[in-house]
Amino acid sequence: MPHRYPRSVPSTIREDRLTPTFLDGTVLDPDLLPEIVSLPRWAEPDRLRSATAIGVLLAMILAVLAIRLLSRVVVRSVVVIGLAVLAIGLWDQRTELGTCAATCDCSLFGQVVKVPFDLNPRCS
Asked: 108 phi and psi, to 5 degrees?
């Protein structure tokens, strides 16, 4: 009986990344998102990494509040699942921002982040 799927499946993982991430190949893959806006100059990888950690913490706090305060089960479930997806996405972006300065290829949900000269002089 022939195999149902081909042995080699094309990958959407970029070759210049050091390690694949959780969202590679999914709808939320940052490489597949269009650049919607240009980020301000202060949006450096280190600051964005800290901001995403705060965002994950806020999403967790909001999820706990939603569980405690919302009475309808369906609304509660949708809100908690949405906040969990947001937290996972932010955490994935945070891990990428930690290593992107070495490759000069930083992005936050598809938005290009410029690497400052002091982090990597080759990225000017």
From this structure: -125, 105
